[in-house]
Amino acid sequence: SGSASVRLLASDTNSTSGSSSSEGAHTTDLPMEIRVAIFICRCFIYMCSMGQWVLYHVKYSLKDFRSGAVVRLGRCKIPEYLCQWQGLSSFFLTIFLFAMLCMEPILHCMQNNDGFLFTEHCAEGERLLFPYSIM
Asked: Which pLDDT value is given to residue 34?
C-alpha cells in the first residue's frame, strides 16, 4: 500500500504539472517535491556532517603535529589521535562521505538533466547509481 501511494503521488504530480512529451524519457524519476527533499537532505549531510568532521580532523591533526604528538608508521608521520579507534573510525567516515560527494549522481546530472532538476537519471548519473548505493 505504501508503494501504491507513492505511485499515486507520482501520477498526481505528473498530471498536475502539465507534463511535456519529454517526460516519458524519465519514467523512473521521482516527483519534483521528492527530488528536492532528497537534494536538501543530502546537502545537509554533506555540509553539516561531513563539514563538521573535516573541521574536527584538521583541528586535531594540526594540534598533534604542532605539539609533536605523532606516531611513525614507516616513513609517514600520523597524528596521535588517529591511533584511537574513535579518531580512526571518524576519519574513515569522513573519507567515505567525501567519496560519496564525489560520486553524487545528482551533481553529475546537473548539466545533462533534460529539464529535470535534481534528477539522478542521466547517462553520468546512471553509471554511478550502483557504486553510490554501495557506499
From this structure: 86
